[in-house]
Every structure is written in C-alpha cells, then in structure tokens.
UniProtKB/TrEMBL annotation:
The chain crosses the membrane at residues 13-36, 42-59, 152-173, 188-209. InterPro entries: HtpX_protease (IPR050083), Pept_M48_protease_HtpX (IPR022919), Peptidase_M48 (IPR001915). The gene is htpX_2. It comes from the Bacteria. The lineage of its organism: Bacteria, Bacillati, Actinomycetota, Actinomycetes, Kitasatosporales. This is Protease HtpX homolog.
Length: 303
C-alpha cells in the first residue's frame, strides 16, 4: 500500500491495514444485512451513508482544515515551514503535499487527504512556536510518512464507518418509533435487537481502528527517524509537545479531540490506564523507548 518513496516500507503496517479493512468490510456487510432483515427499510440509509462516505473521502482535507481552523499557506507566507517540507520531500523522493497552518495554541500537526497528490500537512502556530528546527523537521517527517504509507486514507475510511453505523441506528430508531405505534411490543423487541447488533459492531470497529492507529504511529515514528537520521530530535519533540498539551485548557482540547487519530500526539490531558488502553496513540514511554532503540540501531550498537 505504500507509495514509491524513500520512506522505508513497513510490511507489518501494510498487512495490518489490509486485515483491518477486510474485517471492517465483512463487519459492515453483516451489519447492513442484519438491519435489512430486521427493518426491511434501510436501503435509503445505505445510499445516504454511501454518499456521506464519498464526501468524506473526496473532501477529507477540506473538512479537517475547516474544523481545525487551518489555512493553506504559500512559500512566501511561511518560508521556514515550506523549506523543511521541500527538503524532506526531496530526501524521501515523494510529491510535495499542500502546506497549511492552523492558528491554534495547541501544539500539534496532522496529515490528511485521500492520496499523495491531494494530501495536506498542517501544523499549528503553537507547534512552530515551541519547537527547534530539527524537532519540527522530525514532526513533519512523521506526518509525511503517513502520506507515503497511505495510512491516512485507510484511517479516514475506517473511522467514518462508525458514523455510518450511527446513522443507520438513528434512522432505525426514529422510523420504528414514529411508524410502529400500533405494534408497541414488536417495536420494543426490534429496537433492542437493533441496538444490540449496533453495539457489537461499534465495539469491534472501535478496537480494530484503535489497534491500527496505535501501530501506524509507531511506524511513522520509525520511518521519520530513519529518514532524518535524528531519532533524538523526534523524541525531544514528542516529550516537549506531550508536556505542553497537558497544560492546554480542557475546552481547547475538547475542540480537537475528534481528530486525535490524525494528530502527531493525542489532544488529551494526563492519561489514565483505561484511557491509554483505548487511545489512538501509543504511550509516550513506548514511543520514546522505540526511538531509543532506533538510535542504537543507527549508531551500530547492539540492541
């Protein structure tokens, strides 16, 4: 699935993406079939959901930029930022994505877009203000590796399938509630069955997407560290950004949490054991340990 570039291919990531999408596809085919059997009236919902998925796929970059108050910038407006992206794209031998800036104090970055030719890499002003040049380079290399590995597209589609399930359930609930008053007992049983099936589908989807998301972050860290040959700079950026996010006001974090799966680091305060278990990202300690191992590998030391 990885595009041709000098980013080191990650076969485990590719295999996980294929397996995740295959399992999610089976899951939602079964989900749709179950709803058709139960409700006999979900064809319209399937059509609407398919249309929404198409909109998400084709316009994911614009939707994400709008939600995060991002704006495309020219090399004249942001020469430092464009210079780093130019150097990294040349080193990776990949097309240069569009570059955007979000005027938020939240220190973060993300990549979005359906493919390399329509990708956008966005950084916040809070991130640029806090990081040294080599740290910013590490973060941008991390985001560019997501584009090269094409996992941005996979995670976009996978995440949106949950929205489809929610839409179907809502339609089922209101259609039965409004149209089945003469069959109150049957309606109640039907709703319980639909909700049970939906809860199972959502739970399995949630776990599959979170597992893929955590691995893809480790893969991006490794690809960025190998491309820049400076894993310590990426580790420094991770430590600095994670510490600063913990001090961001809760209201600002809530605004950004819907995009956690796309961020360099999750927009969360201090995590609990349960939060880390279901997080879109590995723990900071795990990422730093992996980067330390890459540093030893690059220096020729024994693991």
């Amino acid at each position: 699935m990885a595009m041709h570039s000098r980013f080191r291919p990650d076969r485990q990531l590719t295999a996980r993406m294929v397996v995740t999408m295959f399992l999610l596809g089976l899951l939602y085919v079964a989900f749709t079939a179950a709803l058709i059997v139960l409700l006999k009236s979900v064809v319209l919902v399937v059509v609407i959901a398919g249309g929404l998925l198409g909109v998400q796929y084709w316009f994911s970059d614009r939707i994400a930029l709008y939600a995060m108050h991002g704006r495309l910038v020219t090399p004249e407006e942001q020469p430092r930022l464009h210079g780093v992206v130019d150097r990294l794209c040349a080193a990776a031998d990949m097309p240069k994505p569009k570059v955007a800036v979000s005027h938020m104090d939240l220190p973060n970055a993300f990549a979005t877009g359906r493919n390399a030719d329509n990708a956008v890499v966005c950084v916040t002003t809070g991130l640029m203000r806090r990081l040294e040049p080599e740290e910013l380079e590490g973060v941008l290399a991390h985001e560019l590796s997501h584009v090269a590995h094409r996992d941005v597209t996979v995670i976009t589609i996978a995440s949106f399938l949950g929205v489809i399930a929610g839409l179907m359930v809502r339609f089922a609930f209101y259609s039965q509630l409004l149209g089945g008053r003469q069959r109150d007992q049957n309606t109640a049983v039907l709703l319980v069955m639909v909700m049970a099936v939906s809860a199972l589908v959502y739970a399995v989807s949630f776990l599959l997407i979170r597992a893929l998301s955590r691995y893809r972050e480790l893969a991006a860290d490794r690809a960025a560290a190998m491309l820049t040959a400076r894993p310590s700079a990426l580790a420094s950026a991770l430590t600095k950004v994670s510490g600063d996010i913990a001090r961001i006001p809760t209201e600002d974090l809530r605004t950004a949490q819907a995009f956690n799966a796309f961020f360099f680091t999750p927009a969360l305060g201090p995590g609990t054991v349960v939060a880390n278990l279901f997080s879109t990202h590995p723990t900071l300690e795990r990422r730093l340990k992996a980067l330390e191992a890459i540093s030893a590998e690059l220096s020729g030391e024994a693991p």
